[in-house]
Amino acid sequence: MFFQKENVRRAIVFGGGGARGAFEIGVWKALDELGYHADIVTGTSVGALNGALYILGNQAEAEEMWKEIETNDVLGFELPIEVANFGDYRKTVSDFIVKIVKEKGLSTKPLEEMVIKYVDDEHEIRSKDIIFGLSTINFKTMRVENYYLEDIEKGRLKDYLLASAAIYPVMEKYYIDEVPYIDGGYRNNIPIDLALKKNPDQMVVVDIHGPSIFRHDQRIDDVEYEWIKTNWPLGDMLLFDKQRTEINVSLGYMETMKLAKAAEYMGYWYTFDPDQYTKENKEFYIVLHQLLISQQSNRLFKHIDKEGYQQELLKELSKKWKKVVNKENLMWAVLELTGKTFKITPDKRYAINEFQEAIKNRVTELMEAEKTEPIKAFESSYILSRKEWSKELFEELPLISNRRMTLQIMKWLTDDSITWDHPLFNIIIKAKPLPMILALYCKYLFSKEEGFF
Question: What pLDDT sits at residue 96?
Fold first, then answer.
């Protein structure tokens, strides 16, 4: 097993990505529990800052620090009390841009004060038997400059950390001996080259969806490595939000534990306790069989029984799940896609029945709300990114939104206003197979205690 090997030279590479760096703290926590301790640490931008914290060695303190950070602490920009909708988000970003233009780049002083406060013992970092490297860009030459700790004059590590994290033009350039430097993430966001140069046997690469394109280094093919990332969006790089930080730390931890194939962690998008898996998987197929052979589902059965349609169905599920769906993982795919559609947060390890209850509660909440007004964009407890807001606004559109279509089909089934023999389902089965499947699954969840359909 990768994480349990002994007597190997290990490296960790922390990628850049601003506020998304909280994910790396969760990865660090999991790696400590798995017994993976690095001999080589490299990073760019926020990854360099996290790398310095890693070498200092106090994961709990680093996590506490991250959970207290706000945008004002890093960029000197005060977020509004609430960013509850796309209008709030758009105004926040507009005000942010105006401030950047007006000040010709935000001051690095708030970030500098934070680095001084938390990366507070350069001597301690140098005393550890761990190689440390970081990447930045010389603004005069626009070339990447890589530095190991031994290349940096004593007492000046802070300057190079700030140079690596100076995300110009949002922030001012950072000067070292009158030479301007900017964020290394523009050219070397995941500095595996720095780690590979020190000849590790194993390498963990932490990818937090930073801004630049990763350039493959052929030397990585000669090293045993694990690439840790998440399918979930990690939010805006420049807007630090405490609720989002909590989620990202949890995601980093759970994605690492799943990758390590820890016995208590399974799932693809979400993380589950596997205890109920066998029972639930068996029950899922029994109920599906009962549904398809029932008299009222005769028309549905005729469609689903066709091999060609089954292949199209699996293809659609695979596209949405972003992983090939087959009979072994069909239950997982439907469970997770239903959770995603109804915005169940991925910030914890769920028991399967607990996750199913969360889906039922969300469906009930939305169906009750729809009695008085149309379903609106999902109201999140954390700040959504522009891309996430776009998806949520898309979910408000009738006949297009999978969430709204699923609820409508559920309503028809619950009220018995339309049965599977109704001609409308001929259209839905062909045109909107995903909402049809999700509605079936939701009906299954609500019917579990009452027996089969």
Answer: 63
